[in-house]
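Sync notes, pocket subgroup
Present: LS, DG
LS reminded everyone that the earlier model was apo-only. Rerun requested with carboxymethyl coenzyme *A included. Inputs:
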Amino acid sequence: MTTAKLILDGKEYEFPVIVGSENEVAIDISTLRAKTGAITYDPGYGNTGACQSAITYIDGDQGILRYRGYPIQEIAAKATFVETCYLLIYGELPNAEQLSAFRHQLTYHTLLHEDMKKFFDGYTAQSHPMAIMAAMLTSLSTYYAESDDPDVINLNIIRLLAKAKTLAAFSYKKSIGQPYIYPRNDLSYTADFLHMMFAVPAEQYQVPDVLDRALNLLLILHADHEQNCSTSTVRMVGSSRASLFASIGAGVCALWGPLHGGANQEVIEMLEMIQADGGDYQKYMNLAKDKNSSFRLMGFGHRVYKNFDPRAKILKAAADDVLNALGVQDPLLDIAKNLEEIALKDSFFVERKLYPNVDFYSGIIYRAMGIPVDMFTVLFALGRLPGWIAQWKEMRGDPSTRINRPRQIFTGATERHYKPVSER
Ligand code: CMC
């Protein structure tokens, strides 16, 4: 299969076909408008390939997710988040020397410029940490020069990864009115973040291993997911040659929405609502199915996965392990499991292929770890950072990248003429 034919208004046109390394097929319609005068119409871009990418592969029908060819199950069970960052951004798993150099760099760029603390002072305690994260990540561009020099880009990539966790922890400390805890160079990436979150100056705090392992797993599972809403935003903004920091800041804003990364916060709020309502699952199932209601079962459904979300499977098992290890009994976990069981038997959900997604069980683990609900999406952002960076880097290095600029089908008024207000 090398070409596809289109007949429009009785005339036949031929377009090249592109086949990916997993035999995914795309019709290259980049010359469509020039040849035919027509454009494609694909709201939500469900059928549009916006780029060619070698980073992450998803087969939504079979529930397959691979980072650079490695199955998510293997990476989740065996790798660290720092190795995963390296894999996504540089294309290969690091050898011992590369890993040690990368860890060293990530450790020695964690400090924020002291002046940045003044920004935090300006926010109220109620400020959502996602707003703070987006603003702060973009603000990094006011401290660190950016250019197209690959060494400068790489240094800024390291700065982003290293400083994002400091920014995230500071935004939490701000919200609870505690003093900021500075990064520690003797701790791993994940342990350092947990230390900055939970340590207080008056006490010694040892990061529990179980928290460290759980965070590592959660960040790995969120690390990339090909052309999702926030990643496409990063690519869209970056395609105008906007800086890395600005593009990532935009990605954080896109992630915040309840249909995307914000769903993890919504899931817990929904489970709490069901609990407060006496655990009446059926009422909420009916509401989710009611076309007159805007209520959706949060943490259910996915644009790409139509069988199961492999990340949700891993997290469901991890939720039991983490809660047991922490000695936490959370009634919300039982509610979630019951809800899943009922939904998976309900014809509405079965017909529409709606399964639990990554956000369904992640919030329960975060809750057990003592992470406040407002911070859930920030943790998603921290996990997604290497994916955004890898995709930004790939896009900027791709000579076929053009500024992203979709077209539209205009449905507004045709030409008309101005009348003075007295005549309207
Ligand atoms: N609850 C009830 N009905 C649903 C749900 C849900 N969670 N998700 C989809 N549907 C229905 C929807 O009403 C539609 O029904 P119909 O065909 O009768 O009109 C059908 O299923 C298809 O839904 P859609 O909205 O066209 O699907 P989409 O691919 O545009 O949206 C989604 C995908 C993830 C935004 C959507 O499933 C959803 O809103 N889920 C809840 C929010 C959520 O959990 N988001 C996290 C996604 S995973 C993490 C991430 O990538 O951010």
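DG: The chain has a mean pLDDT of 95.
LS: The chain has three domains: 3-59, 80-257+373-396, 263-369.
Action: DG to write up.
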